[in-house]
């Protein structure tokens, strides 16, 4: 199992061989995770053999077109996939514990404790008729029923301060807060028990650009404070570029590339990642929008071989027949594309 490239500053300073020797073991290891939705129209394999690792303090951006499986990955890691979906196999190991193997009670304990999930639109799901404080206290009490009231309250105040909110927010209702403040409350709830892994699904959608930046900076700061590994799911590649260490690209339920943020933006390897990057607007291509030809395939009728081959400008005969494995290239980059079969380093 390959660990992602180190954080931006480390990666530039130390030779790769030394980094590999010094690297601590990953805090999160996702291994061959598979999810299928059993619909009336057939089986949709929404996650297909997804594997990656993250170390404490790393931040991974997860990108891909709508329907590529990003939220399914988050829900599977939380064991929150609902019928008609089913986790078919794989492991999600955090600090030595495989979450997929836990019983329901063990998993309830692991949520918020080991892994926290801030879902899409979380700020709109705060209870409008409960004070923010009561919602925070309930979350703590569900996991630490014996913690004294004063300690629970202090824990909540600390979490609010960590996300730059006044502890007075404890007594407020959601309707009294701005969108950015509500999103920060959701982050505060996510870090109440100082989990090792935080997944934030589109944490900045529906916020203005200034508030988006503040929310991302808040995530950065709380990550530093509790040294968590963070997975940021989103579509905004520009925002990702500024805040994550590495980027993972999903296509039709598979991870097709994982690279450091610098490599992804300057030299993407997978033809789909190349198309994603070149479709980003910049000052040189002002007014010229370069989209990705064709449509993302239905998971019910995936093309044979590599699912991207009908849209790929580099497709070869083998791509129509054989699904490429996620191979490891130099610099711990991982790419699932036959173009690189000969470059594998391990
Ligand atoms: N409840 C469901 N029933 C059937 N199929 C589903 C269900 N939820 C998801 N899927 C399938 O799983 C695929 C992945 O969905 P998912 O929500 O994980 O994508 P996503 O990449 O997070 O999309 P978005 O960026 O729009 O949030 C979808 O294309 C759909 O085919």
**What would you say the CATH architecture of the largest domain is?**
3-Layer(aba) Sandwich
Strand portion: 15-25%
Domain tally: 2
Runs with pLDDT <50, length 5+? 1-22
Q: From the alpha-carbon coordinates, what is the Rg to the nearest angstrom?
A: 21 Å
Main beta-sheet annotation: 8 strands, mixed
The computed structural class is alpha/beta
Shape: globular
Output the CATH homologous superfamily of the largest domain: P-loop containing nucleotide triphosphate hydrolases
Write down how many β-strands occur, each being a DSSP E stretch of 2 or more residues.
Answer: 12
Helix fraction bin: 25-40%
Q: How many alpha or pi helices?
A: 12
Task: Please give the alpha-carbon distance between the first and last residues.
Answer: 10 Å
Order of helices and strands: HHEEEHEEHEHHHEHEHEEHHHEE
Which small-molecule ligands are present, each listed once?
A: adenosine-5'-triphosphate
CATH class division of the largest domain: Alpha Beta
CATH topology of the largest domain: Rossmann fold
Order of strands side by side in the largest beta sheet? 6-7-8-3-9-10-12-11
């Amino acid at each position: 199992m390959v660990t992602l490239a180190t954080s931006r500053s480390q990666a530039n300073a130390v030779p790769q061989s030394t980094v590999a020797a010094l690297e601590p073991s990953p805090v999160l290891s996702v291994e061959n995770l598979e999810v299928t939705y059993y619909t009336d129209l057939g089986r949709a394999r929404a996650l297909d053999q997804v594997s990656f690792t993250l170390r404490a303090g790393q931040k991974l951006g997860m990108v891909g077109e709508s329907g590529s499986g990003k939220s399914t990955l988050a829900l599977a890691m939380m064991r929150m996939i609902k019928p008609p979906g089913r986790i078919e196999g794989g492991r999600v190991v955090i600090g030595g514990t495989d979450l997929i193997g836990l019983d329901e009670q063990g998993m309830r304990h692991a949520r918020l404790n080991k892994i926290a999930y801030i879902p899409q639109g979380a700020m709109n799901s705060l209870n409008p008729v409960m004070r923010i404080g009561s919602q925070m206290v309930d979350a703590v009490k569900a996991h630490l029923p014996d913690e004294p009231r004063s300690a629970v309250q202090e824990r909540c105040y600390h979490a609010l301060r960590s996300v730059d909110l006044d502890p007075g927010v404890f007594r407020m209702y959601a309707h009294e807060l701005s969108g950015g403040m509500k999103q920060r409350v959701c982050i505060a709830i996510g870090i109440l028990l100082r989990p090792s892994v935080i997944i934030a699904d589109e944490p900045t959608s529906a916020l203005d650009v200034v508030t988006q930046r503040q929310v991302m900076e808040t995530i950065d700061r709380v990550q530093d404070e509790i040294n968590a590994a963070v997975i940021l799911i989103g579509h905004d590649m520009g925002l990702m570029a500024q805040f994550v260490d590495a980027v993972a690209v999903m296509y039709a339920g598979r991870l097709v590339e994982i690279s450091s943020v610098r490599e992804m933006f300057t030299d993407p390897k997978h033809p789909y990642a190349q198309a994603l990057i070149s479709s980003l607007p910049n000052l040189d291509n002002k007014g010229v929008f370069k989209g990705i030809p064709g449509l993302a395939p239905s998971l019910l009728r995936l093309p044979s071989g590599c699912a991207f081959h009908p849209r790929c400008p580099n497709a070869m005969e083998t791509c129509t027949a054989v699904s490429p494995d996620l191979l490891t290239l130099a610099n711990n980059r991982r790419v699932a594309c036959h173009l690189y079969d000969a470059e594998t380093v391990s």
